[in-house]
Amino acid sequence: MSEVRIRHRQGGFVLDAEFSLDGAWTVLFGPSGAGKSTLLRILAGLLAPQEGRITIGGRTLLDTAQGIAVPAGRRSIGFVTQQPALFPHLTVRQNIAFGVRHLSAPARAGRVHEMLHLFGAEALADRGAKNLSGGERQRVALARALAPAPQLLLLDEPLAALDAASAKDILRRLLDFEVRVLYVSHDLAEIWRMPAELVLLDRGRVTATGPLRQVLAADRERLLEQLGS
Amino acid sequence: MDLQALWLTVRLAAVTTLVLLAVGIPLAWWIVSTRARWRPLVESITTLPLLLPPTVLGFYLLVLLGSRTAFGRAAAHLLGHPLAFSFAGLVVGSVIYSLPFAVQPMTAGFHAVDPAIVDQARLLGAGRLRILREILLPLSARSVLAAATLCFTHTVGEFGVVLMIGGDIPGATRTLSIAIYDQVQDFSYAQANRTSLFLLSISLLALLLLYGHRRSEGIPHV
Fold first, then answer.
1. Residue B127's closest chain A neighbor by CA?
2. What is the CATH number of the domain that holds B76?
3. B106-149 tens-digit pLDDT
4. What is the distance in angstroms between the Cα of B139 and the nearest Cα belonging to chain A?
């Protein structure tokens, strides 16, 4: 069971969202300023909401009523944004190994190799993180986030800055990986083919949920108008 | 040149710099990362020596380190001699006097690290100490170097605080800046000139090393 219920006020903006995360992939869709990134930061444990309850895979990560707030590092949540914040002073290998320090050295090396292979980045292993192209950086950021085998991977428009070929290749590799994903986007074309559940967010409120194509087909014209496409 | 004073000055500056790095790094990290309401108070207190006349700071330290306070008596009991007018007393005074020169550059350095990088380290399970050791310090190495350089040179040139709490005891508390004062009092202008030139060279050299390092790293001047 994976459920999210959050109420958070920030200045004049109120985020009041409730939805479940039971599908393997869930797309969080909505216009800029809908509260998508704020919601992700709350899920990740980087921002504390005034009220809320977050349960992922039956494990309660946050329950303000009971005073439960699992710290970000113990939530088993990976988070990759449009600007991958790699550790610039470390190599690609060291970046990916950062979150699996608890493993033995051989297990750690194996896990890093597995991640490099998954994202076709073996050749980058010993390169400095600051000497990578945009697409390479994003592959490494995803590999680093997935290395500790998180329960949930939060992706905040991770492919928005990449060329179409790189984006398609990375998305294909991600879809092959067994992890629950919450994917944020405001690009209809990008998410249209995803086998995912959809959560529509508008001005801080969930306006629709359900199978992606079903929800989008019904709301397509209104959404295109809302997004200014 | 008063070699005894030179050796004492170098020793004082080195010990003070090491203590300030040990104290300043966690303090700067706390200032950058805390949400405590009394952070402005801590920031103000650590910056105060920058604005306070050295004689005022020296006077209060002299009172604090003396036998009239519990702290002074406890320190004297532990060390077997009063802190005032001793090398240990000079270190205490120098550390407090140069505290802003350690904390300010390191706070600025830690602030300059992209918060998204620190967030990623947190998400990957790193605790505060690991974030400091493996992320912030390597990414702020230049700020730490700048802090160490400033602390060392500032301590080398210290006068007011040292004179107030250490007096002018050869081999124990007489630093080069006090030696210059003594040389001028004795009308030994040539000697004072040599010692002053030496101190000026140390300060200039330290700054040249610092700015030369920044230039070689391609850091733009602000």
1. A73
2. 1.10.3720.10
3. 999 999 999 999 999 999 999 999 999 999 999 999 999 999 99
4. 7
